[in-house]
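<purpose> Linking amino acid order to shape
<body> The protein record starts here
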Amino acid sequence: MSINRRNFLKTTTAVAAGSAISLPAVARGAESAKKLRVAIIGVGGRGRHGIGMARGENITTICDVDAKRLAHTKKQFPAAKAYQDYREMFKNTDDYDAVIISTPDHQHYSQAIRAIRAKKAVYCEKPLTLTMWEALQLADEAEKFKVATQMGNQGMGSGGWRGAYNYIKGGAIGDVKEVHTWTGVHGGWFKDGIRTPEGEDPIPEGLDWDKWIGPAPMRSYKKGCYHPARWRGWLDFGNGALGDWCCHLLNAFYKVYEPGMPISVECVNQTGPAIDTCPKGKTVKWEFAADGDRPAFNAYWYDGVTKPPRVPGLEEGRKVGSAGSYIVGTKGVCWVMGSHNNSAILVPETARKAFGQVKQVAPKSRGHEREFIAAAKGEIPYNAPLSHFGYGGKLTAFALMGNIAARVKGKLLYDAKQRKFTNSEAATKLMNRKPRDGWYLD
């Protein structure tokens, strides 16, 4: 359902639904020529972060399905062209060099693939996509077109996983045996374990509900249910607690070992079925095959009401907090604390003292967002950002296997070369979705 044109024009007389503002091209003087020309898709909520990371550059284009948000942002960047429909925005690609995507998960692929094929640098918030297939496809396409990319798991710029990297590469815990990662109940931002409500409510003035739905199956608008910021638990739009936190928390071990895709996944425990939304809690187990000198190991995920085993060797009275990850090796344990890999320590404290000074061997960063800007400008290689889509796509795809396992019972065997589950057609089918006509590129 599209918004009423008269109401939309009340919000901003310069924009027509799905059309660009008719303004002269952005001036490109000697000073501005040094700046990156940036398009922002999604200017409310998380989109404010995207605007912030581009403020030192030249924001030439903005896009949002909510006309009120768009009008507010237009006041801040009056020279920028504005769109309510990103498909229209991608018909005019001469105005920008890079695209920052800060929209719900179900829109990511459709937006990012257009940017990549237009040979634009693209930064996309986590998780990279809604489905496994989409994540792997974006990784392929980004490499094919050799464009600068970065997934927005900002913890990649922090010291936590780097501390783990330094300890593990320094031999502090020996060979990896298993990994445990968890996040607690997510609070009031979205709900899991519920069914789609009946009925519909009036669509807020200025919101183009049809474009918000985008490639997802159409459903009626319900106040306080999906938009704004309530969409993540619904399977058509997000991936629940796993999708919300996997690219932060699982990155702690995944960047250290870069183990590729697991050979199996199983949801070994969950509270309630995954029908319209994700379950209220689940425990997922992945199996990674041996690779060279690195032995096979298992990784576990706990979210919502499920809890991990206590960190082995952790001193009595110490609490693990609501989110984190720990890596168990043949010689010891490395605990990466916090939801964004804030810091890493050896457990118990006596192990850290015995190990002594750690050698700094982890890759350095000029800052997660600045890596992307530098790559987009050609100051560093296109694939130099640490969460470029080649990496971020695999991290997302492996993690989202967990939500497939929550919908298909039993141990699912995965073949990375064939990109399919070899013992379950149902699981393979859930690797992707059927979009509404007109939203995917061929």
